[in-house]
Amino acid sequence: MKRTFALGLVSSLALASAAMADIKIAHVYGKTGPFEAYAKQSHDGLMLGLEYATGGTMEINGEKIVVIEKDTQLKPENGKALLEEAYGDDEVDLAVGPVSSGVALAMLPVAEEFEKVLIVEPAVADSITGSNWNRYIFRTSRNSSQDAVANAIALSGENVHIATLAQDYAFGRDGIAAFKEALDGTGTNIAHEEYAPTDTTDFTAAAERIFNAMKDLDGEKKLFIIWAGGGNPMGKINAMDPSRFGIEIATGGNILAAMKAYKDFPGMEGATYYYYENPNNEVNDWLVKTHQERFDSPPDFFTAGGMANGIAVVEAIKKAGGTDTEDLIAAMEGMEWETPKGTMQFRAEDHQALQSMYHFKIKVVDGVEWGVPELVRELKIDDLPIPIRNQ
Question: What start and end residues bound the annotated signal peptide (predicted)?
């Protein structure tokens, strides 16, 4: 009886020890809600990144990777509570996510409180690695400044006038602020700024204010739009014929579904974070081939970001020799790793991932459902002077 009990106790301890040996990662993201398409891509990419970086074993140094999904429903209060639950009750080693910048800003203090790493992907607002940053925050996704500097390179010039339209929250306002800063010294003038609620569907009033601000200007005139999710401001404003005022519409890259609207804008220039035909490297080759085989479609904008995130997690744990938070921070500061976009590097000062962006010109291709962002030039890390904003 005693021997049976002892054996049972040993077995229980062995099981508990095995469970404790798992590397637990929480993916806290808006699985449902307005950005559901972004979220699915991000999660698919994360899992592909973990698979790629572990050679298909989903283990690091013999320890199994367990990913726990938590759905914020795109609500900041949910993001905060779920990250507390992940660090506290679930005892995860680190967390990744979320989709929304607003949700991310609510989550940042939780990482500091629990002294655990949060790798932000794909939320973009500068303030995440800027004014609201803490040392437990890393970000694999691009920030607003990277979008802004890349688009400024693509759109600026002497005697160019640009009006802007963006969503009225952190993503939009940080993006426009960074864009204006990036235009300094280029000879380009910001003619008007317009902000609209994220759920806007009628852009008539905003468009009229933009047209009135630009109609009497001489020179090249562009309306630069920063928008995430639905509403289709590009299509709706284009239907109002801005060309009668000499205004061209411009925007950055987006997911393939959103770029169906780009077919109406052949020749439009901008800069993008990712399009599957732009990078030329082994990691992207694997992603494109594997994604096509499994999902019968090419990888999208946020799939690449999710994969970069997953690879970063594995490389950081390998480099740190485990999941101790301080060891991870030391390993990740300045860390370089290979992604579908080529080499990325976590900047030591603010833990922002420095990375390439892609200047494009839209081309309409027969048989392709979206406007193809044909590569004009890869903007590499050294081409993009990204400000440090946490100091």
Answer: 1-21
390, part of any domain: no
The owner of tokens 């020179």 is: 219
Q: Are residues 290 and 253 in the same domain?
A: no
What is the edge-to-edge ordering of all strands in the sheet holding 372-379? 269-272, 357-363, 372-379
Rounded to whole angstroms, the Cα distance separating 239 from 242 reads 8
- Kindly report the CATH number assigned to the domain that includes residue 305: 3.40.50.2300
- 210 and 323 co-located in one domain: no
Amino acid at 356: S
Residues 41 and 157 in one domain: no
3-state secondary structure of 253: coil
Is the CB of residue 111 less than 8 Å from the CB of residue 325?
no
Q: Are residues 350 and 361 both part of a single domain?
A: no
> How are the residues of the chain apportioned to helix, strand and coil, as percentages rounded to the nearest 5?
45, 25, 35
Q: How many domains does the chain have?
A: 2
Tokens in use for 369? 């459902």
Exposure letters 81-101 (e unless 16+ CB within 10 A, then b): bbbebbbeeeebbbbbbbbbb
Residue 159 CA to its chain's centroid (Å): 32
pLDDT digit of tens for each residue in the chain (391 aa)?
Answer: 444 444 444 444 444 444 456 999 999 999 999 899 999 999 999 999 999 999 999 999 999 999 999 999 999 999 999 999 999 999 999 999 999 999 999 999 999 999 999 999 999 999 999 999 999 999 999 999 999 999 999 999 989 999 999 999 888 998 899 999 999 988 899 999 999 999 999 999 999 999 999 999 999 999 999 998 788 999 999 999 999 999 999 999 999 999 999 999 999 999 999 999 999 999 999 999 999 999 999 999 999 999 999 999 999 999 999 999 999 999 999 999 999 999 999 999 999 999 999 999 999 999 999 999 999 999 999 999 999 999 8
Sign of CA dihedral 163, 169, 171, 175: positive
| Length of the chain measured in residues | 391
Cα–Cα distance measured from residue 75 to residue 79, given in angstroms and rounded to the nearest whole number: 6
Task: Give the residue numbers spanning the domain of 174.
Answer: 145-272+357-383
Position 117 in a domain: yes
